[in-house]
Amino acid sequence: MTDFQTARTSLGAQLRQLRVDAGLSGRDLAAQLGWHPAKVSKIERGKQTASPTDLRHWTHGCGSPETADALIAQRRSLETHYASWRRQLAYGTRPRQLAFADQERAARHMRILETACIPGLLQTPAYARAMIRRGMRLHNTPNDLEDAVQARMDRQAILETSGQSVEFLLWEPALQVRLCEPTDHAEQLTDLARRIAHEKLDIGIISIAARIDLVPAHGFWVFDSHLVLVETVSAELSLTDEDAIRPYLAVFRELSQVAARGQAALRIIERHRHAVAR
């Protein structure tokens, strides 16, 4: 269970206790608030996050309005672990790129695993443009495409900064998934090969033929071993609890040991580049 889900479940348990202490059944409270009974049940079981207004209505309905402010503060803390893309991108994609750049500059050591796409710090402009355009369409956000692409390209300056370490792991399917036009895809793979050939960056490719005991189920970014970012379809999860971070470090370490590097990695990339060219 993630930090976010644990926090939401805890909040739901506190709300349930308020209801029980007030001598109300779930149906009683729902009827009083004009809600469907299922909403009360989902909130109490941590399946739905109560809004600040919901919390005020809930505490008032249970005769404990004085507890509302503390619960709203707790919910605000919960939100720091779960930020929906719609909310993050409400003013465009460029501001989120700038915020991400701030996180990267503050880190001394980053570990990046991607399983289905090339990570932003290694993307070409054309590949980045296709990725960002897809996100704008999915989340119906303001169109600041070119500014967002430039902001993503500017972030790559971090790779030339001395004193900072960045490790990249890419599962082989990330080279195969067709997320842009074939010519742009081929250009992206060529650029990735160039970076590996220059040996300036630590880039490993996890072959689909590699024997692994841990499945790279999804991508993630680790910042200095105290923050993990996980991108889902609808939101970004920020994990800060040591117990939640430890498995990500273990997964990265084990996958890194089987990853191909140097000439072995170049051969994998070249195979897919030729496939795209054909």
Summarize the structure.
With 278 residues, this protein is α/β, with parallel strands linked by helices. 56% of the residues lie in helices and 13% in strands. Strand 5 (220-223) and strand 6 form a beta hairpin.
Please explain how this structure is put together.
With 278 residues, the protein is an alpha/beta fold. It folds into 2 domains: 3-80, lambda repressor-like DNA-binding domains (434 Repressor (Amino-terminal Domain), Orthogonal Bundle), CATH 1.10.260; 83-277, Endonuclease, Chain A (2-Layer Sandwich). The chain is 56% helix and 13% strand. It contains 13 helices and 7 strands. The protein has helices at 3-21, 26-33, 37-44, 52-61, 68-79, 85-88, 93-106, 125-139, 145-155, 173-176, 182-198, 242-258, 262-277, and strands at residues 82-84, 109-114, 165-171, 202-206, 220-223, 227-231, 235-239. It has a 7-stranded mixed sheet. A hairpin with a 3-residue loop joins strand 5 and strand 6. Helix 1 (3-21) packs antiparallel against helix 5 (68-79), helix 4 runs antiparallel to helix 5 and helix 11 runs antiparallel to helix 13 (262-277). The protein starts with a helix and ends with a helix.
- Given the structure, what is the number of helices? 13
| Percent of residues in β-strands | 5-15%
- What is the CA-CA span between the terminal residues? 44 Å
CATH class of the largest domain: Alpha Beta
| The CATH architecture of the largest domain | 2-Layer Sandwich
Uncertain parts? none
Which term fits the overall shape? elongated
Number of domains: 2
Structure class: alpha/beta
